[in-house]
Amino acid sequence: MIVEPTFNDAERLRIEGVSKSFGNHQVLDHVSLDLPAGRRMALIGPSGSGKTTVLRCVAMLEMIDAGAIYLGDRRISVDLTGRTARSARDLRSIRSKIGMVFQHFNLFPNMTAIDNVTLAPVKVLGIEKAHARDEGLQILASVGLAEKAHAYPSQLSGGQQQRVAIARALAMHPSLLLFDEVTSALDPELVGEVLEVVRKLAETSPLSMMIVTHEMRFAADISDHVVFMEAGRIVEEGTPEEVLRSSVNERTRKFLHRIQLH
Amino acid sequence: MSLRYLWNVHSQLLGGLRITVQATLIGMGIAVLLGLLIAMIRLLRIPVLRQLSVGWIVLVRNTPLLAQLFFLFYVLPSYGVKLNAYWLGTIGLGCHYSCYTAEAFRGSFAAVARGQWEAATVLGLSWRTTFAKVVLPQALPAVVPTLGNYLISMFKDSSILSAITVLELLGTTQALASQSFMYTTLFTAMGLTYLCIAYPASIGVRRLEKRLSGGRRVA
User: Fold this and answer.
1) What is the CATH number of the domain that holds B139?
2) Of A187, A230, B9, B115, which is the most exposed, with the fewest CB atoms less than 10 Å away?
3) B116 → chain A, closest CA residue
4) Around A232, how many Cα atoms within 13 Å sit in the side-chain half-sphere?
5) Partners of A178 in the beta sheet?
6) Considering its fold, how many domains does chain B have in total?
7) Has residue A12 been placed in a domain?
8) A8 within some domain
9) Measured between CB atoms, which of B124, B133, B217 is closest to A96?
10) Which helix or strand (DSSP H or E) is residue A234 part of?
């Protein structure tokens, strides 16, 4: 794959030959991807194709069996040999550069929206409470939830909860944000508000994004690189135009056809 | 029933009740702290300590409380432990119940969704912050009614302390009866005292349980 040089390679994400199995089932088979800083990559493919596992490996929620993952020149992957084992503090410092938004939001139900947003900046980055609060309120306002700052997750709709989850990730000032099927658990009428927030974010911030989604129109709109995965392998990748509109690959076309029937 | 006799000895009986309540509350404190510690060791999978805590639970759950108290009372002193019967009994009661509270805590920790740990991990929160700010506040409401029931059980089981010479409510009653032979009066009064405390407490726990489960916030 040819990638043009970028101005900021310190935050470039490189996934090199990553393999991963759960028991006898191989979920990732030599997956290599390259995400220059500030770019947005959409991962598409049928369920069980390994898209989410790619994100979880980058987020260090899973160990990998082989290969390596780098953010800039720092190796972030944790493998079974323990070669990359490092101190908990070091791990957390790399982690704070990578944010993740989950399918099921995973907000902390025992805290208000604003406390969800400020907990990590205060505890991990050591930002002063009052300052974190001011900034948290600004971020909540930017996702359209200024007036819900003191609501508990149970008092919010799914779409609102997911927007709080995005705000929570943004409060850590990550350079890379991972979106794991962030609209899949939402009622259809709530999907739009979440996609709108992500879209606005893509337009206004220099964040790199990796987006696993089943919303093909959204993938086409927001990403500048689309990767189609199947059975743990990358089948095809390219611009949204190449992969989503004019793919010549049989399997990609089949998948897109199936999706459109829904 | 002789109410006059009861009136004459009521201060002794109340003194015994005070010892019962004290032993129960202090024992509960021990049971909660030790149980929490054991549950955390198992959650963190700390080697050695984890095996030790499993062994501890097997040992305590499969021997009678009375046998444990006799062991503390008759064996420990010959190894230089100089605690009086009251403290030995209270500690024994707390240790006995720690196995049950540990199990309750473990269950409530396991009930906290994995996604909560993952969200905290991705945010870079330390284990301690995750546990104190995210897991424990979610686990505690579920475990409080169970702890309340154990508290009531301990209140009743503390009567066993009389077997190692502690003059709590049952022991005091027995001592008075052996002097006055007013068995009916004394043991009826004793039973009613236990009943008058344990029954309202169990109703309270049931109400608490209802309120906590009704007001539970779901993610």
Assistant:
1) 1.10.3720.10
2) A187
3) A106
4) 12
5) A100, A210
6) 1
7) no
8) no
9) B124
10) strand A233-238
